[in-house]
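Q: Given only this backbone (305 positions), what sequence would you predict?
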């Protein structure tokens, strides 16, 4: 079966339509339709159920699609191996990133990498769940927090996140500045929580670390809305320096009850173990290690604010 047919069929399934598949592959819609039709004719089975409004796989099509994806993955791996011998980053780099941290702190590094290597193609996904890299065909992932003992994965520490209590000056002027945990309990707190779980805060009291389970007046399931709420003067929150650093430097936020942020979370790059690390993965990991060695948000602030 010609590789062009396989590529067209996979593109149709992933795009959900002949039109979007044609746009993705930069060919005409009729070319995509002919490729799929000729594939079905050669195989002697219908792969897709087509109506004017929907497109779905037949049972035979589903099995064949999975086989095609595996075949294309093997072809990509073979191309990566050849590129490794030339030491030239090329091919598709699939990266899975945490939502806020990935968008703000990791994606710009990868965008810069794509600008330096014309033969490198980026495919980024953003979510806060831990995916199976091998099963989902992902080359590289950024994970925050403890690593599990997943077999077949390599890891490299990039950064140790630091967090601190903070609030808007307007809120502190209105409600006062808490001096200890006891006074903090009387304030409006903005916390991270989902499905009944509220993330604890790691504070420092009397020179010793203390874990606090905050009672939030506002509970949000994403870091960016928490930041928005604190900037709007809704209360005090415990947030990482990569999220609040610029705002502290500009005076839009002030640190509370601390001499400086506290290290609380390790950040790692993880990837599937292979015989030879593809150049596209190697250059991405090296670029991230260099970037996180001295990130802007930890350079002189907010610890010094």
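A: Predicted residues:
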């Amino acid at each position: 079966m010609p590789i062009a047919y396989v590529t067209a069929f996979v593109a149709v399934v992933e795009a959900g339509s002949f039109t979007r598949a044609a746009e993705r592959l930069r060919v005409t819609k009729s070319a995509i339709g002919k490729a799929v039709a000729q594939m079905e004719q050669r195989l002697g089975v219908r792969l897709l159920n087509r109506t004017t409004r929907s497109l779905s796989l037949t049972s035979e099509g589903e099995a064949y699609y999975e086989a095609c994806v595996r075949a294309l993955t093997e072809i990509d791996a073979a191309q990566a191996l050849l590129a490794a011998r030339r030491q030239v980053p090329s091919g598709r780099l699939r990266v899975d990133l945490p939502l806020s941290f990935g968008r703000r702190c990791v994606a710009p590094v990868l965008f810069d990498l794509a600008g330096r290597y014309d033969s490198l193609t980026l495919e980024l996904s953003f979510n806060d769940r831990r995916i199976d890299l091998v099963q989902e065909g992902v080359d590289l992932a950024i994970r925050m927090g403890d690593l599990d003992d997943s077999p077949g994965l390599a890891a490299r520490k990039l950064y140790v996140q630091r967090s601190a209590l903070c609030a808007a000056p307007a809120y502190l002027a209105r409600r006062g500045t808490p001096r200890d945990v006891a006074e903090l309990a009387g304030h409006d707190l903005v916390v991270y929580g989902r499905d009944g779980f509220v993330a604890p805060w790691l504070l420092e009291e009397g020179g010793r670390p203390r874990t606090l389970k905050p009672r939030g007046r506002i509970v949000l399931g994403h870091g960016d809305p928490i930041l928005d709420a604190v900037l709007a003067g809704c209360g005090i929150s415990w947030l990482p320096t990569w999220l609040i650093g610029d705002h502290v430097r500009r005076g839009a936020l002030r640190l509370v009850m601390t001499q400086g942020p506290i290290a609380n979370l390790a950040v790692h790059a993880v990837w599937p173990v292979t015989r030879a690390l593809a150049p596209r993965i190697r250059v991405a990991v090296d670029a991230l290690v260099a970037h996180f060695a001295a990130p802007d948000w930890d350079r002189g602030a907010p610890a010094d604010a």
